[in-house]
C-alpha cells in the first residue's frame, strides 16, 4: 500500500494520494488550495495514474483544486450529495465575513463528471476498496473513507474534518451542528479498533486508540455509542 500526503495552501489542508503500490492507479483525496504542483510531483515520483478524486466535504480548503485536477486528468469527482452544491458555490459553506474576504473575483465550477457518495457504499477504485461513512456535523455532507486492514497495515480512516489529533472539526459554519458531529463520532469512530490509523484533513496522523484515551470530544461522544471493539 502506498499513501502519500502533503499540506496544501495557506489552509494547510492535507491532500492524500492512495494506491496499491508505486507505478499503479491511484485515488486523490481532498486536493485543496494550490495543490496541483505538489500533487503532480507526487504522481510523477511514484509513477501513479489517478482514476478519481474523493472529497471528504465541500469546504473551500478541501475542494479548491478539484475541478482543475479532474479536468487535467479526465477523472470523476466523488462527493456526498448534501455538499455537492459547494463545488460550484463554496461560499455557501462559509460565514459572510469569510466569503467577503476570500472571494475577490474567484469563481468555481463543478468538474464535468461528478458522482455522489452514499453511506456504507464501498468504492472499488484503483484496486482499492474504500468504505464511505456519512459523518455529518462539520458539514451536512461530510464523509470519511476507510481502507480495510491488510497484512501490511491496520485499518485506515481518512477523516477529513470529522476527527483530528486532539480535536474535531468546527461546527459554527453553515451546515455545522455540534450534537450531530458527536453522534457521527460515536457511530463511525468509536466502534473502530484502537490501532485504526486516522489521517485527518489537518495536522498530524493519529489513531483511534489515542483519541479514545485523550480526545475530550470523543469522551463527550461516548454516551451516544453502543458497544465498541477497542483493542
Identify the strand order in the major beta sheet. 1-2-3-4-5-6
- Count all strands and give the number: 14
**Total of helices:** 7
* Quaternary structure type: single chain
The CATH architecture can be named as: 4-Layer Sandwich
Protein name: Hydrolase
Organism: Planomonospora sphaerica
InterPro entries: MBL_Glyoxalase_II, Metallo-B-lactamas, RibonucZ/Hydroxyglut_hydro
Pfam families: Lactamase_B
Question: How would you explain this protein's 3D organization?
Answer:
By secondary structure, the chain is α/β, with parallel strands linked by helices. The chain has a single domain, classed as Metallo-beta-lactamase, Chain A, CATH 3.60.15. It has 7 helices and 14 strands. The chain has helices spanning 36-46, 60-63, 66-73, 96-102, 178-188, 208-214, 216-221, and strands at residues 2-8, 13-19, 25-29, 49-54, 77-79, 114-116, 122-125, 128-134, 143-147, 156-160, 163-164, 167-168, 197-200, 206-207. A hairpin with a 5-residue loop joins strand 2 and strand 3 (25-29). It starts with a strand and ends in a 10-residue tail after the last helix. Its cofactor is Zn(2+). Pfam families: Lactamase_B. Keywords: Hydrolase, Metal-binding, Zinc.
Amino acid at each position: 500500500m502506498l499513501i502519500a500526503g502533503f499540506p496544501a495552501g495557506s489552509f494547510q489542508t492535507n491532500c492524500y494520494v492512495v494506491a496499491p503500490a508505486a507505478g499503479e492507479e491511484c485515488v486523490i483525496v481532498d486536493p485543496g488550495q494550490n495543490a496541483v504542483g505538489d500533487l503532480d510531483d507526487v504522481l510523477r515520483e511514484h509513477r501513479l495514474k489517478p482514476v478519481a478524486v474523493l472529497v471528504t466535504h465541500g469546504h473551500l480548503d478541501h475542494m479548491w483544486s478539484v475541478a482543475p485536477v479532474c479536468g487535467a486528468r479526465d477523472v470523476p469527482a466523488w462527493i456526498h450529495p448534501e455538499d455537492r452544491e459547494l463545488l460550484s458555490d463554496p461560499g455557501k459553506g462559509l460565514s459572510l465575513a469569510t466569503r467577503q474576504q476570500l472571494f475577490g473575483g474567484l469563481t468555481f465550477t463543478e468538474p464535468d463528471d461528478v458522482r455522489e457518495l452514499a453511506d456504507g457504499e464501498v468504492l472499488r477504485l484503483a484496486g482499492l476498496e474504500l468504505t464511505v461513512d456519512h459523518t455529518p456535523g462539520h458539514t451536512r455532507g461530510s464523509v470519511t473513507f476507510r481502507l480495510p486492514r491488510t497484512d501490511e497495515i491496520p485499518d485506515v480512516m481518512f477523516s477529513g474534518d470529522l476527527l483530528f489529533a486532539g480535536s474535531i472539526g468546527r461546527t459554527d459554519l453553515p451546515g455545522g451542528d455540534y450534537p450531530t458531529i458527536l453522534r457521527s463520532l460515536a457511530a463511525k469512530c468509536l466502534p473502530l479498533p484502537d490501532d485504526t490509523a486516522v489521517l485527518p484533513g489537518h495536522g498530524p496522523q493519529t489513531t483511534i486508540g489515542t483519541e479514545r484515551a485523550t480526545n475530550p470530544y470523543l469522551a463527550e461522544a461516548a454516551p451516544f455509542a453502543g458497544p465498541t471493539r477497542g483493542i
